[in-house]
């Protein structure tokens, strides 16, 4: 197993990823939220949006999603300092 595979395996088992997966399961099991999301996809209204945003399951998911996104940004920043170039190879060509 190479280093990238080891990193992916560690990330999959990390609390950050496990928390996100757990919150996704909660979203999937929240019938009210799923109904709101389906209704919103068919007819996006301010009222439906507000009900979705105020749903505790949705709020928990958004917190976990934000934590993952911040981690990814920090990882990209670290990789950029290690490689001394940007994420896209064309940035330094």
What does this structure look like?
The chain is mostly helical and 93 residues long. The relative contact order is 0.10. α3 packs antiparallel against α4 (46-53). It has 5 helices and no strands. The chain has helices at residues 3-12, 15-29, 31-42, 46-53, 56-83.
- Helical stretch count? 5
The CATH topology comes to YheA-like fold
- Oligomer kind: single chain
Number of strands: 0
Secondary structure: helix percent: over 70%
**Main β-sheet description:** none
Q: How large, in whole angstroms, is the Cα Rg? A: 18 Å
The CATH class is identified as Mainly Alpha
Distance between the termini: 32 Å
Instruction: Report the principal-axis shape.
Output: elongated
Order of helices and strands, N to C? HHHHH
- Indicate the low-confidence ranges by residue numbers: none
Q: What's the domain count?
A: 1
Furnish the topology, listing elements before pairings:
Elements: H1 3-12, H2 15-29, H3 31-42, H4 46-53, H5 56-83
Helix pairs in contact: 2-5, 3-4
Name the descriptors.
0% strand, YheA-like fold, single chain, mainly alpha
In a nutshell, what does this entry contain?
It contains five helices and no strands. It is mainly α and 93 residues long. α2 runs antiparallel to α5 and α3 runs antiparallel to α4.
């Amino acid at each position: 197993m190479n280093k990238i595979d080891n990193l992916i395996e560690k990330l999959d088992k990390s609390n950050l990823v496990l928390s996100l997966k757990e919150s996704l399961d909660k979203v999937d099991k929240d019938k009210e939220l799923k109904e709101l999301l389906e209704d919103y996809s068919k007819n996006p209204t301010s009222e439906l949006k507000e009900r979705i945003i105020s749903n505790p399951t949705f709020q928990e998911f958004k917190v976990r999603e934000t934590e993952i996104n911040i981690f990814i940004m920090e990882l990209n920043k670290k990789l950029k300092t290690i490689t001394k170039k940007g994420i896209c190879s064309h940035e330094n060509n």
